[in-house]
Amino acid sequence: MTASAFELNGEVALISGGGTGLGLGMARCMVDAGAKVVLLGRREAPLKEAVESLGEAAHYRVQDVRDESALPGMLASVQEQVGPVSIVINNAGVHLKKPATETSLESFQQVIETHVLGGFALTQAALPGMLERGTGSILFIASMASLIGIPQVVAYSAAKSAYLGMVRSLAAELSPEGIRVNAIAPGWIESPMLRQALNGDEARSNKILGRTPLARFGEPDDIGNAAVYLSSPAARFVTGVVLPVDGGASIGF
Questions:
Q1: Domain for residue 251, yes or no?
Q2: Which residues are known to be catalytic?
Q3: Total domains, the chain
Q4: For 142-178, what is each residue's pLDDT tens digit?
Q5: Parent domain of 121
Q6: Does the UniProt entry include the keyword S-adenosyl-L-methionine (predicted)?
Q7: What is the pLDDT of residues 32-55, one digit of tens each?
């Protein structure tokens, strides 16, 4: 195995929720590995800013992954202007922190629609091209909430746990066609969302760090490097896995 096994030269990665946070971290690592990236999101300003920071290998589309009817046309546009999509990263999502007694069915459904239905719709739209070429990598960005019980995030936990079933089923169905499907389960990663979630809550920060064997928060590039690996030839025999990138939090005590 050589260093070139971890390169993504000639690949085109489509990253939903790619303008900020983990999505931007993954995009940066993908570009560094030689890929072109196309960032999807609902707000143009952060997408444009992200692309400017990433350079000529980066592009964006203002796109809601829940808009199923618009996705095939968006994929065709990307193929024409950037190249055929060979990597899909389902990262778009919304967070909802509320006690179960205060979580309405409407808000629960919104979380499921963005994560689960949106992730499936984007994957489904990209599959015809991947199947025709007989190759591809699909990643779902899961969560610690997929693996351990976290209070007051029942809708988010349901959505992220659904990813694990989707990964296993899709991997079993698509791997014989040359398309690998995997997931990454990030731990607590430094980001504006994490800062907002902790919001000066020192006790919660200490609780998280106390159950994280590496005793620190992760960085977006930690997730990005894992995404590069799972999408690269180095992981050519890896499919259907859920890779925690969490400093050991899912096994810590």
A1: no
A2: 156
A3: 1
A4: 999 999 998 999 999 999 999 999 999 999 999 999 9
A5: 3-244
A6: no
A7: 999 999 999 999 999 999 999 999
User: pTM of the prediction?
Assistant: 0.95
- Sorted by sequence, the CB contacts under 8 Å of residue 86 that are 6+ apart come out as 11, 12, 13, 130, 133, 135, 136, 137
pLDDT digits over 117-143, tens only?
999 999 999 999 999 999 999 999 999
Inside any domain, residue 73: yes
Is there a domain that residue 33 lies in? yes
